[in-house]
Design brief:
The complex is a heterodimer of chains A (281) and B (287). With 281 residues, chain A is mainly alpha-helical. Chain A is 80% helix and 0% strand. The chains are: A mainly alpha (281), B mainly alpha (287).
């Protein structure tokens, strides 16, 4: 009971603090902008902990965050092994191959208006399909190990990336292209010095969408078969054993990996497209 | 309409590539069979045999089409082998989840736009959640709800709702904020109440953003429903068809289920797109 009371009390106090902070004159400062979501996040964790302990929810339904944190800290080697298998081997390999080949194909079809008009709608169409369903096929073709996961990732990221790159290559203005012509720049010079740089905001948009897609692809593909390591494998087997603290620890790893991956790409974008209005803020 | 020819060309090229890949991938089995029987096979013979294997590495398009026809038109829709039956299982979970997720998402977005504290505490998390693979919690939701006695449609719908929720929140917040200073000032000069501003300015202005996220959301809902069918084992739904196909090496069945899922997704996105076009045109917002 005391746990429940504590959780309620903490919630009310945190709510009051957040409302005061948000409506105060300081609400535009960086510190407050950071503090408010952090307080909210901590409150969720505390209420979760308090409710689970107070109502004695069995750990096979919802373990308290403290138990998850302990599990996380004590099983670091396993989590690391899964991370390497799923993220470094499966996701990153597939991401680089898929995005790289999509950009290459986009440049290859760049000179043909006919191909572009055909590939763009088809690409847009395929990008909306549940490509994740190809996972069992890839597992059959490329085996249980990370190669099949990388293949799923390639299939997932290819079309969003292709569509974005093709749009990006068309983003430079007629005036700018005319200027390149007056310089008598060749096709490749125009491509390298004007059109690819102008396409970067679009390309990075595709790259950012692809980070999440890639991780989803690699994890879900492991539900269809995997060697005895990997984040998706661990989640599905530990769920079967009702070891939910391990599942939550694995989800935490996935969340951290996902946001760091996205953050890294966003950081590179900031460096590359420093000239774009959205980055000058 | 001048895009029809290029699109058809690309689709035809994909089918030709598919046939080529089918010959290439399936020929090994034919050669192995021939070597075991001790006979020589000519190339044309190989091509013929790669088209009609029972468990090919890559089924040829006509095999998948035949399987689709067989499992949709020729089977009763109540049959466990009917793809329409399985598609309906998946579709119902998708639609229920999509409705829940969209409804809650719009509500939260309205809250965020009107309440500063909510905006500052929830919005960063909603944006961050789009970078993490939330689908990873799908197996847990299914199994946990199963252990407290909730089975069938609802657990899958919750996953679908969860996946469509965040895109809708983020898109809807953007949309509700899209009216500029000038328009908001105009409402003020008319002495409009916050409710009037909401109904007459913010909500109509948010429609293009809402529909853009609805398209993302319904595709995500379908993926959620399919993935939600995996952990319960291969029982019902398109996800189950994929899983049982992969257990028993029934490649034709996998491809048929995959194509059914693709048709479903295309149909759903198409319907949302159609509603979008009609709504925006009647609102005078069509580009």
């Amino acid at each position: 009971m005391s746990w429940l009371l504590f959780a309620m009390l903490f919630w009310v106090v945190a709510l009051w603090v957040n409302i005061r902070l948000a409506n105060s004159s300081l609400s535009e400062t960086r510190a407050v902008k950071l503090a408010v979501p952090v307080i909210f996040g901590v409150t969720v964790l505390v209420v979760w902990e308090g409710v689970v302990r107070g109502l004695e929810v069995p750990p096979v339904i919802l373990p308290p965050p403290s138990a998850i944190a302990v599990k996380f800290a004590t099983s670091l080697p396993i989590l690391w092994e899964d991370f390497v298998q799923t993220f470094i081997k499966g996701t990153l390999t597939g991401y680089i191959l898929g995005c790289g080949s999509a950009v290459a194909v986009a440049i290859a079809i760049d000179r043909s208006d006919f191909l572009q008009r055909g590939l763009l709608p088809v690409g847009n169409f395929i990008a909306a399909l549940p490509i994740i369903g190809t996972a069992p096929i890839m597992v059959m073709w490329f085996g249980f190990d990370w190669q099949s996961k990388a293949a799923v990732v390639v299939a997932m990221v290819f079309f969003p990336m292709l569509v974005n790159t093709v749009q990006g290559l068309a983003a430079s203005e007629a005036m700018q292209r005319d200027l390149m012509k007056t310089y008598s720049a060749s096709y490749w010079q125009t491509l390298l010095k004007l059109r690819l740089p102008a396409a970067m905001p679009f390309i990075f948009n595709g790259l950012k969408i692809s980070t999440t897609l890639a991780l989803i692809g690699a994890i879900v593909a492991e539900f269809f078969g995997s060697p005895i390591r990997g984040m998706g494998f661990r989640i599905s087997t530990e769920v079967g054993r009702l070891a939910l603290d391990m599942v939550w620890a694995e989800i935490a790893v996935a969340a951290i990996a996902g946001s760091v991956f996205y953050g890294a790409v966003a950081l590179i974008e900031k460096g590359v497209t420093f000239w774009h209005p959205s980055q000058r803020g | 309409m001048k895009s029809i020819l290029p699109i058809l060309t690309v689709v035809a090229a994909i089918i030709v590539l598919w046939y080529g890949a089918a010959v290439w991938l399936n020929s090994k089995w034919v050669y192995d069979q021939a070597a075991r029987a001790g006979v020589e096979v000519s190339f044309s013979e190989v091509v013929k045999q790669t088209m009609n294997q029972e468990r090919p590495k890559l089924p040829a398009p006509h095999q998948v089409a035949a399987e689709l026809w067989k499992t949709t038109v020729e089977k009763k829709i109540t049959s466990k082998r009917s793809l329409i039956f399985h598609s309906w299982i998946t579709l119902s979970a998708t639609l229920l989840g999509f409705a829940i997720g969209t409804g809650l998402g719009i509500l939260l977005a309205v809250g965020i736009v009107h309440n500063r504290a909510m905006d500052m505490s929830v919005m960063p998390w909603a944006i961050a959640s789009q970078t993490i693979p939330i689908i990873a919690i799908a197996p847990m939701i299914i199994v946990v709800l199963n252990s407290v006695g909730i089975q069938g449609l609802l657990p899958k719908a919750i996953i679908s709702a969860y996946l469509s929720f965040f895109p809708v929140v983020v898109g809807m917040v953007k949309g509700l904020r899209s009216p500029g200073m000038m328009e908001l000032d105009q409402m003020k000069t008319w002495n409009a109440s916050p409710a009037q501003t909401f109904w007459k300015l913010r909500l109509p202005a948010s429609m293009p953003y809402l529909f853009a996220s609805l398209k993302v959301g319904i595709a995500a809902s379908l993926v959620g429903a399919i993935v939600g069918e995996l952990p319960t084992g291969a029982i019902r739904g398109l996800g189950a068809r994929l899983l049982s196909g992969s257990y028993y090496g029934q490649t034709v069945q996998i491809w048929a289920a995959l194509l059914a899922a693709a048709i479903l997704a295309a149909g759903l996105v198409g319907i949302v797109g159609l509603i979008q076009r009609i709504t925006l045109r009647r609102m005078g917002m069509a580009q």
